[in-house]
Structures are given as C-alpha cells and as structure tokens.
Amino acid sequence: MKEQLLEQLSSGTAIALSPVNISDSLISLFFAGLFGLVISNSYRYSSQSLSGGRQVVSSLLPLSLTVCVIITVVKSSLALSLGLVGALSIVRFRTPVKDPEDLVFLFLSIVTGLGFGANQNIYTSIGVGIILLTLNFRSYIVSKKNNKFKSRFDFNLNIEWHDNDDLSLSNVITLLSESCNQISFVRFDRNTSLNNLVVQVGLMPNITIDILIKSINNSLGDKVALQIYSSAIEY
Question: What count of other Cβ atoms lies within 10 Å of the Cβ of residue 167?
C-alpha cells in the first residue's frame, strides 16, 4: 500500500488537476466585473454607512476582480493553492472596518469573486442577485418611510427652560403655533426646576428657521435654550 501511494504521488496521478480554460475564465471575469459594478452602485444607493463612503465604493469592483483572478489561477494547481495559503499567513491586513454594513458589502464582493472564479456562474448570479435585491428593497422601504415622515415635519425642536411664573408649557406651544402649521409632541421632561420639551414641527410656507428663532428670542429672550435636530432623529 505504501509503495502504491508513493508511486501515485511520484507519477502525479494522485490529484487530477484541470488546466485553466481561457474562454470560461474570461466569461467568469466579465461577470465578476459586472456584479462588482452592480455591488458598487448598490452600495451608493442602499448603504447608510457613516464611516465608509468613497473609499469602500472604490474598492468593491477591484476586490471582486482580484479575488476572481486569484481563484481562477489557484484552482488548477495544488502548489499554487498551498502557496496562496502560505502568502496569506504572512500578510496581515490591518485596515479597520468600523461599520458592519461596509463589512457586508466587502464580503459580498469577495463572495462574488470566489463564485465566479470557481466557475459557479449560475449559482453565484442567483445568490448575489437575491442579496442585492433584498438590500435595495430594504433601502427603498426605509427611504419611503423617511420621506413620508419628512413630508409632515421639517425638523425637531428641543426647548429647555427653568421654572418661571411667566413661562409655561402652554405658552411655548402657543408661541410655536404662530409660526408652525404642524406640531407633534415627542417628549416632555421635568427635572427639579428644569423643563425640556421636544416637538416635531412643520413651518408655515412663509416662515423660515431664522424667522422662527428670531420670534422665540424676541418673545422669550434668555429664558429658553433652543436646539434644532433633523426630523430623522428618533428619541
């Protein structure tokens, strides 16, 4: 048995290695580039990442093509496969990925390169396509919800004031109603002598934020502290 194994290893018949097919490899590389481009555009449309942006977008297409070329080359040679493992064991990638969503798109590009590099074109196309449709559909639902929300309210107002006989919650609401056609109560906190009111407001057509702030300052002066937030922020 030992002699037979040694004979097979020396003759090269122990592991059958298939040569690289140029036409199939070019087709796989084309699809890897195509899907890499689709992933990049999907990232621009559906990603809500705050830390990625242009750096991640610019790396998705080259990453898909690079992984596809590597897999296409090493899959036909056991020696190259072992060499790749050795190379990866000594190369350390220290680039931090702060946002998990960026990591999802980077892994999706890697999977695209792996699948097409292994000539699993149909399965990779279906799988990656379903994932991209899911991500874009989720982004569409979120953006539609935000647009519906913003159509009624422009921004949030956070108003703070200390207890005062001349200033009450009803006085603040009355003052805001003179400049806002939509007022939605979000939260009211009272801690000892400090009052905190958060409302979502929609301004009248002829009123701007500057006019609203000026009106509040003229009426209340230094009695209140005013902060303005985006209406997309949830409390």
Answer: 17
Q: Could you tell me if 71 and 23 are in contact, meaning their C-beta atoms sit under 8 angstroms apart?
A: no
- Tens of pLDDT, residue by residue over 4-30, are 545 544 554 444 445 557 888 888 899
Q: How far apart are CA 194 and CA 226, in angstroms?
A: 13
Q: Is the pTM of this model over 0.70?
A: no
Nearest to 71 by CA among 116, 31, 40: 116
Residue 8 lies in a domain: no
Residue 166 or residue 7, greater confidence: 166
213 by Cβ neighbours in 10 Å (0-12 / 13-18 / 19+) ranks as: middle
Kindly state whether residues 160 and 134 are assigned to the same domain.
Answer: no
- Which domain does 63 fall in, by range? 18-148
Instruction: Please give the structure tokens belonging to residue 176.
Output: 């805001």
Task: Indicate whether 149 pLDDT > 70.
Answer: no
Q: Which CATH number does the domain housing residue 163 bear?
A: 3.30.70.260
| 5 domain residue, yes or no | no
Where is 159: in which H helix or E strand? strand 155-162
Among residues 87, 122, 148, the one where a domain terminates is: 148
Total tally of structural domains belonging to the chain: 2
**Is there a contact between 156 and 200 (Cβ–Cβ < 8 Å)?**
yes
